[in-house]
Amino acid sequence: MQMKYVQTTCPYCGTGCSFNLVVENNRVTGIAPYQRTPVNQGKLCPKGIYAHEFVNHPDRLKSPLIKKNGKFVEASWDEAYDLITKKFKQYKPDECACLSSARCSNEENYAMMKFARGVLKTRHVDHCARLCHASTVAGLASTFGSGAMTNSIGDISQSKCCFIIGSNTFEQHPLIGRQLVLAKKNGAKIIYADPRLTPTGKQADLYLQFRSGSDVAIFNGLMQEILKNGWEDKEFIKNRTKDFDKLKEEVMKPEYSLDNVSKISGIPAAKLRTAAEWIGKAESACILYSMGITQHTTGVDNVRSVANIQMLTGNLGRPGTGVNALRGQNNVQGACDMGALPVVFTGYQKVIDEAAYKKFADAWGFPDGISAPQNGYEVTVMMDVLADKPGELKCMYIMGENPMLSDPDLHHVEKALKNLGFLIVQDIFMTETAEFADVVLPACCYAEKDGTQTSTERRVQMWRKAQEPPGNSKLDWVIIKEIASRMGYAKQFPWNSAEDIFTEIAKVTPSYAGMNYTRLNRPEALHWPCPAPDHAGTPILHKEKFAHPDGLGQFFGVPYKPPAEVPDTEYPFVLTTGRCLWQWHTGTMTRRSENLEEEEPTGWIEINPEDAKALGIKDKEKILAVTRRGKVEVPARVTPDIMKGVMFMPFHYKECAANTLTNNALDPIAKIPEFKACAVKVQKIAEAK
User: Fold this and answer.
1) Which of these, 641, 584, 650, lies nearest to 199 by C-alpha position?
2) How far apart are alpha carbons 348 and 118 in whole angstroms?
3) pLDDT in tens, 177-207
4) Cα separation of 282 and 286, whole Å?
5) Taking the chain, what is the end-to-end CA distance rounded to the nearest angstrom?
6) CATH for the stretch 573-688
7) Three-state secondary structure call for residue 370
8) Torsion from C-alpha of 657, 660, 663, 669, nearest 10 degrees
9) Distance CA 217, CA 562 (A)
């Protein structure tokens, strides 16, 4: 028997843990620790431990599929490519849209972005960052000039006060949770704010249970208390920021007194006062947040509020400080960096900027030009246009995304997809979205490819091929290249390896310019920005100045606004959603992992015991959850760990899909949906009938 270890990077959350794939007779059979990485030092969460189980699952797609008379039939690659190129040539650029993927490598996301703009000439390219951290990109870009996590994961252990809000870190990013444990051992105070007393909250020194959607009021109240007591960092404000007066004018309003914020949020005023003192007086304080902050119609406001309090207290540019936006998927940071967004090329170079547009048009050398220098549609807007304006968008190419479980208001998404004239889905399994496709293309998973992914801390790390892909499946970038060649653009896609693509990325992306595979092929890898080959990378951003042209951080006065949909007599509860430890995203991979599926085999809705008693609902009883968009049968989980008046559902499960219920109201700037707050009612099934 031949056996070897192949070191690679985990395909699940954005932490970027490394491990060894165990390969026996050229087939991945297990996971073994890789001790040398500074990210996880050989330790893994359950998803990482079992990250090999889906790789050789019998459900893997192995051949192209073409839908004929409503049923999929196997086809050759030539047949699939012939149909795809024939169809693509029938549509105008603005009738086409592409979805790239946070599950795919940087190289593959770059290839899809280049294909969309250069081959199809469409402005409409996006990916699931729109559904998780689009408000981080927009909010931090406006305040700091850069829309990414400011510090490294290792920095968290050096903090003296860690404020976690909108992140169940111990379940969603367990190895980052480990850094919180180390910080606490080093004397840090841990503050946790969430409607649920999660495993993360149970580690906290101060737990703030609050109503989902009241984040801005909480931050403004904390900042008012900090200013009243003179705990702000006056030197930092004076030397490093601008528009402090606008912030002060807003947060000092009477409605942000701690007593009033207590009424809005449900947090006792005394606890708010303690939190403000701990943050204001700490030698170093960091904030960790995830989708609990971002997935709101006020997502950008929430992120700006996080930035405001860190600038107010001078907690930026040093170890143990910073705004730590924890990315949900393994390469959502990288997909954004690669320009898989409708408003930027790689490295956040704006498509409407004349110099940036000319740079990419010249570098790519498409003889008939590239897409117009105009912003395109976000994926949430694409779905609205497809559903409400049939005929404007006609063709969609989806790589590694599953909007039929991940997007809000799934009935709306289904209507949108059914209005397409032609849909291609490229994935490793037959997903809920692929069922709607005209052509399904079988791709390779992380264990079958070389490439890079960029973690939540901007660390660019390697994937390494451990086995051959199943059947006739192909690398995502190879599929894209071969379609482009069929469309007449072979010269523009000259790559023979993932490394060739990365070399091209580095040439057009200033923040990646100093990186190459030789430099990345080491345990610590590199953090961007890394502008030159002799640059060591940048674990901590904004040490001396911010990324705005004038170097100053921008304060915003952010008024509190309630969620788009609030409880009323018909729908009296707030519904919020999230992840659990054992499953991930739409379950495409984890639900094909025997050990993970066994731990948490279906979804649930959490209900406070007082609410359950009033409704006559027992623990584990299957009930009906209903919103204005749909209804779902789901088991009740009666627990004191959820706030009275609030209910929670995980969104991984197609049989009780939380996103059948969620609201597709959008943040006006980031166009991110309000997954985290909508009005819901629950009923006993017998009564509903």
Assistant:
1) 641
2) 18
3) 999 999 999 999 999 999 999 999 999 999 9
4) 10
5) 60
6) 2.40.40.20
7) coil
8) 70
9) 9
CB–CB of 565/678 below 8 Å?
yes
What band does 688 get if pLDDT is binned at 50, 70 and 90?
low
What's at 659, amino acid-wise?
N
Amino acid sitting at position 170: F
Predicted confidence at residue 156, as pLDDT, reads: 97
Quote the DSSP letter at residue 308: H
Whether the per-residue pLDDT at 171 is higher than 90: the answer is yes
**Average of per-residue pLDDT values in the chain:** 95
Identify whether the C-beta of residue 296 lies closer than 8 Å to the C-beta of residue 174.
no
> Quick one: pLDDT band at residue 603, thresholds 50, 70, 90?
very high
The domain locations on the chain are: 3-49, 65-131+330-527, 138-323, 573-688
Contact (Cβ atoms closer than 8 angstroms) between residue 122 and residue 98: yes
Burial (CB count within 10 angstroms: exposed 0-12, middle 13-18, buried 19+), residue 494 = exposed
pLDDT at 27: 96
- Reading the block at residue 509, the tokens are 């992306």
Could you identify the residue written with the tokens 């699940």? 12
The fold adopted by the segment(s) 138-323 is Dimethylsulfoxide Reductase; domain 2 (3.40.228)
Query: pLDDT at position 317, please?
Result: 97
Specify the pTM: 0.96
Among 491, 383, 599, 490, which Cα is nearest to 85's? 490
Tell me the per-residue pLDDT of 405-414, one tens digit each, with 9 for 90 and over. Answer: 888 888 999 9
Asked whether the beta carbons of 126 and 100 are under 8 A apart, the reply is yes
β-bridge pairing 605-607 and 631-638:
parallel
Topology (CATH) of 65-131+330-527: Rossmann fold (3.40.50)
- Which residue is it, tokens 């992840």? 579
Give the type of residue at 167. Answer: S
Fold of 3-49: N-terminal domain of TfIIb (2.20.25)
Answer yes or no: are the C-beta atoms of 17 and 48 closer than 8 Å.
yes
Residue recorded with tokens 């609205």: 384
Strands 71-74 and 65-68, sheet pairing: antiparallel
Neighbouring residues of 478: CB distance < 8 A, sequence distance ≥ 6: none
Two tokens at 155? 């920095």
Distance separating alpha carbons of residues 572 and 553, to the nearest angstrom: 41
The residues near 192 (Cβ < 8 Å, ≥ 6 apart) are 164, 165, 200, 201, 203, 204, 206, 207, 208
% of the chain exceeding 70 in pLDDT: 100
The per-residue pLDDT for range 506-537, each reduced to its tens digit, is: 999 999 999 999 999 999 999 999 999 999 99
Q: Which of 64-68, 676-680, 684-688 has the lowest mean pLDDT?
A: 684-688
The CA distance from 107 to 99, in Å, is 15
Average pLDDT over residues 422-427: 98
The answer on pLDDT for 1 being more than 90 is no
Among 288, 326, 371, residue whose Cα is nearest residue 113:
371
